[in-house]
Amino acid sequence: MSNKVYAGIDLGGTKILALLLDEQGDVVYRSETATQAHEGAEAVIGRMVGLIKSSLTSERELASIGVATAGTLNAKEGIVAYAANLGWNDIPLGKRLEEEFGVPVSLENDANAAAYGEWAAGAGKGTQNCVYVTVSTGIGAGIVSSGRLIRGRDNSAGELGHITVDMNGPRCTCGNAGCLELYASGTAIARNAGKLAAEYPEKAAALLGKAGGAALTSRHVAEAAAEGDELSMRVLREAGHALGNGMVTIIHVMNPEVVVIGGGAANIGAALLDPMHEAIADRGISSMAAGVRFVGPTLGKEAGAIGAALLVGQ
Ligand SMILES: [Zn+2]
Question: pTM for the whole thing?
Fold first, then answer.
């Protein structure tokens, strides 16, 4: 007797992670290898094929393959149009895997796949409406509404980092002004900390001590804030308020049951998240905001591969 399995692959710039899910959606096999993108697309595809082949046994019948990857996708045609982290242009990845295995293959934006994975099998499990917000160097969101991933016309939905939180704010590289990302991303936290440190050098010793002469990062700010450094706490308070303003918009537009907050900067914790919750309580429509659960992700680095496997045909 054979058991159907569903492959999910997270194709990253440094690593390829391959999983097999059974019919219940449980991970039954996992393996990974270095991408070594410098060897070219054919070599990378060969490594993906190898990972899948070595995962299959006579008892396992491969039913589909979902691939999560960064970059611009022509998902309908199964083409990776452009991926800077891989150095790929117009690579027909879907077709190659289909020819190799004779099963349906689908490509998905990695952030959306991770959001779908967390919704289906992780922190958002059991809900119908879930937004996964990533706060790292930038800010992005993957949105599941009424049990469906919102992709938009060309897989670009969920650009939460580029909603306006200050109409009169500075220009963003995206063309808009006063974007959330300019105030609340890890990059913004580091930049704003640097500005304040230059402005108030007499108050910046603790923070600059964390950096030890290197460029400031959001982690330095978080470490100094955790030890009670006033200047760092102020930076995180302002970032948290901005993040809360962004959350208010997503709550008002999407009416989610759960918001999953992930990404490196989200690990800063209460110094960032308490002011975020203050802003939501202060500004959100109370009947909508009060019912939202805010949680951390639970699937870790496997979210994208799990989501990709579950999204085939969705
Ligand atoms: Zn922007």
Answer: 0.92
